[in-house]
Structure formats: structure tokens, C-alpha cells
From TrEMBL:
Entries under PANTHER family matching the protein: D-SERINE DEAMINASE, ZGC:162816-RELATED
Family matches, as SUPFAM superfamilies: PLP-binding barrel
Domain annotation D-serine dehydratase-like: ranges: 317-409
InterPro entries: D-amino_acid_metab_enzyme, D-ser_dehydrat-like_dom, D-ser_dehydrat-like_sf, PLP-binding_barrel
Name used for this protein in its record: Amino acid deaminase
A Pfam match: D-ser_dehydrat
Length: 426
């Protein structure tokens, strides 16, 4: 990606690089006391062994991150679409930079606090997957747009009332630039989004009438309508995407390059098949692909279902590490990693290996429950003091528990080394 002074197209490189100067201390639960007082850059250069880090711990795998970024970028490019990965998954400007460097069109976010993080790091193109209705937030947005001609922003609306509120707040803020808006189409039992095509056309008409807004396209989220790869779910997603395509072709836009945006990390292959032929900028918003997982996305990802070129798949880049602190019964061990440390909303952690001992001691083992600070590990041949690597499901609710995440060279090695640190803002 081309350099423009201190900015890679899409993000302020100098602001991201400045994170290397942050001092490590007690604020970051992942950092060993031996590294307190070091800067991030010094700790990275020291290449500390993972054995120096305590538990519980969450890590990212450098090789898996690079592999996933390349695989998705190549696939999106071959499909002739754009990618605005959902930044809420990581809330990590350094990882957003990796995605933008790989060719991402922009970054998607969901809330004003998330948008403010992105703008603090100079992200130039943002897509808000929702309707921005907070008057104070809209006044801030107006200031950002008016103060930076290179800042591009597009959001959604799913009711005439939301259009009226947005327009009123922007005019009160004396916004000079119109805000680009996509009509959001939803579906039965889904989340936000108009359910009726006639209502969608009414929202589009309201946007065109609003002096502070501009009709820029349509958007939606098919992942709210299905949660597995069954034939019924796939058919439901296809039907929704066809509705989205038909709606797009029936509206008139106020820009020469209207946007059609859909696609999480579960059904992006269907988005390409149904929407890829439209005369529009088709923008995917897949967010979980970069980190991936050992649970929900491993099972439902299109690449896991054979959509990847040459059979390539995403790799899980995240792992948790928990220490056996008690073996009170023959078939029960307690780890010191619990709900405060790992995700559990889309499946419990899976034991994968014991550090330094390989996978054997945990073959057939399972985590059956989590407390705030403990995992209940059943049927594992482990001893007090052993450190167990856990595979996790759903990165969105794993990374948000960590403000600084060590990146290891190889999470499967006998002695992983920490080669970087990723700062998050949730």
C-alpha cells in the first residue's frame, strides 16, 4: 500500500508507531514484572520467552495473523469486491493497520466511542454499521468531516425518524459536509434494518430530502438471520441477499459510486455470489477472519466449507493459557483462567496442549464450565502447575478482556517467544 508522508493510505502510521513508546507496568495484566518499566519496543526487542509470562494469559500468533490477512485479501481481490473489516473485533489500531496495508478499503465500526478511537489514529475511511443518533456524537462527527476533507464516512438508517434526527442534529451543528447514508435492510427475527421494501423506499426518500444527508447506497447483515451452515440457513441468507440486490437496483442514489455493504465472517462467499455482479462498490465487513477461532468461525467459515482457493483455511491466531491450580478429584482439574479472561458466549474453551508436553496429556479432555476465575477441566492427565493451552471461540468476546496482548512467534512451539504486543481500546 502506498505511503503518503507519515500515513499509509487509510491510517496514521506515526500514531500507530508511537504505541511502541508506551511503558509497561501493572496496568497490563499480561505483562510479567520483569518487563515493568520497559517500553513496548524494548520488550519486543527482548524477545521474552512465553515462560516468563504468568497465567491466565491471552496470546496472538504472528504467523496465523499474517496468513489470515493475506488469504482474505487475495480472496476479496479475486472476487472483485472491497473489504472494510469490522474493527470492533479487535479494537486494535495496529491490527487495523495490518488489514489496511493488505488492501482493505476502510474500517467498519459500530459506536461513537469506537469511531473516536479510529479517528485518534487517523483512519481515513470509516463505515458505521448502524444509525448514529446521539446529538453530541453527530456534532463531533460534523467537526471531523469539516476539519478533514480526506475523511470519508458512511452510515446506515432504518427509519424515517432516524433520518430526521440525524439531519436535525447535523444542521444544529452547522455541518458543512453532507453525511453519506445507506438504507439498512433487515429481516424477520433479525436485528436492526427495515423489514419491508416499501419502508426502505420511504427511508431513501427521507434521506434525499434531508439537507445534511446524502443517499449513498444500501447495507445489511445477513449473519443475523442464520447461525450455522445448514441448507436451510444458507437458503435464508441467499434469499435475504437477493432482496438486498433487488432493493439496490430499485433506488436512485446521490453519488456516482453507490455502496452495497453486507457480509460478516460466516457467509461472505454467498455475498460475493449474489451481490458481486452489481454495478456498485460491494463492500464486505468481515471482522473475525484476522484472528479467527477454534470454535464458531472454524465450523462456519466459508473457507472451512471449501470456498478457499486450493483448500486453504484461516488459522486461529488466539489462544489462552491457564495453569492447573488444583486437582481435587481424579477426573477434575481447575485452571486459573475464567470468564474474566476468555470468551464463552459461543462455546467453551477447548484444551489443546500442555506447554512443553505436547497434545497427549489433554487428548479427550474438555472444559465443562467456567467461573469468574476458574475453568473446570475434565478427563485430562495433568498435574498441579501444568500450563494448558486453550483454543477459544468468538474473538470479539475474547480480545475485549485484554488491554495489551502478547504476540508469539509460534503458539505450537515447545518454547514460544513473544515477538510483539498489541494494544486494544474497548
Amino acid at each position: 500500500m502506498r505511503q503518503e508522508g507519515g500515513t499509509v493510505t487509510g491510517i496514521d502510521v506515526e500514531a500507530v508507531d508511537a504505541l511502541d513508546g508506551e511503558r509497561l507496568d501493572w496496568r497490563f495484566k499480561s505483562v510479567p514484572v520483569s518487563a515493568h518499566g520497559m517500553t513496548v519496543a524494548q520488550a519486543r526487542d527482548a524477545r521474552l520467552p512465553l515462560d516468563d509470562f504468568g497465567t491466565p494469559l491471552l496470546t496472538l500468533d504472528a504467523g496465523a495473523l499474517d496468513h489470515n490477512a493475506r488469504l482474505m485479501a487475495d480472496w476479496v481481490s479475486a472476487a472483485g469486491m472491497e473489504l472494510a473489516p469490522h474493527g470492533k473485533t479487535t479494537m486494535a489500531p495496529a491490527l487495523w493497520r495490518k488489514q489496511l496495508d493488505a488492501g482493505a478499503w476502510g474500517i467498519t465500526l459500530a459506536t461513537f466511542p469506537q469511531l473516536r478511537v479510529a479517528r485518534a489514529f487517523g483512519v481515513r475511511r470509516l463505515l458505521m454499521a448502524g444509525a448514529p443518533l446521539d446529538p453530541a456524537g453527530l456534532a463531533w462527527l460534523a467537526g471531523e468531516l469539516d476539519g478533514d476533507p480526506e475523511f470519508a464516512f458512511v452510515c446506515w438508517a432504518d427509519s424515517v425518524r432516524s433520518v430526521e434526527l440525524m439531519d436535525e442534529a447535523l444542521r444544529l451543528a452547522r455541518a458543512q459536509r453532507r453525511v453519506d447514508v445507506c438504507v439498512e435492510l433487515g429481516g424477520p427475527n433479525g436485528r436492526t434494518g427495515v423489514r419491508d421494501d416499501g419502508d426502505a423506499r420511504a427511508v431513501a426518500d427521507a434521506v434525499r430530502r434531508a439537507p445534511a444527508l446524502r443517499l449513498a447506497g444500501i447495507g445489511g447483515y445477513e449473519g443475523a438471520l442464520a447461525h450455522d451452515a445448514s441448507e436451510e440457513s444458507v437458503a435464508s441468507v441467499d434469499a435475504y441477499l437477493r432482496r438486498l440486490a433487488n432493493l439496490y437496483e430499485g433506488l436512485e442514489y446521490e453519488t456516482d459510486e453507490p455502496v452495497v455493504t453486507a457480509g460478516g465472517s460466516a457467509y461472505f462467499d454467498q455475498v460475493a455470489e449474489v451481490l458481486g455482479g452489481l454495478d456498485a462498490q460491494v463492500v464486505l465487513r468481515s471482522g473475525s477472519y484476522l484472528v479467527h477461532d477454534d470454535g464458531f468461525y472454524r465450523e462456519i467459515s466459508p473457507f472451512g466449507r471449501g470456498a478457499g482457493a486450493g483448500g486453504e483455511r484461516f488459522r486461529s491466531a488466539m489462544h489462552a493459557w491457564g495453569r492447573v491450580v488444583s486437582v481435587p478429584e481424579p477426573a477434575l482439574a481447575l485452571l486459573d483462567a475464567g470468564r474474566r479472561d476468555v470468551s464463552f458466549d459461543a462455546g467453551l474453551p477447548e484444551p489443546q496442549l500442555v506447554r512443553g508436553k505436547g497434545a497427549g496429556p489433554v487428548d479427550g479432555a474438555r472444559v465443562t464450565a467456567l467461573n469468574d476465575q476458574h475453568a473446570f477441566l475434565r478427563d485430562a492427565s495433568v498435574e498441579v502447575g501444568d500450563v494448558v493451552r486453550l483454543g477459544l471461540s468468538h474473538p470479539c468476546t475474547a480480545l475485549d478482556k485484554w488491554t495489551l496482548i502478547p504476540v508469539v512467534d509460534d503458539a505450537g512451539a515447545d518454547g514460544p517467544v513473544v515477538v510483539d504486543y498489541v494494544r486494544t481500546w474497548f
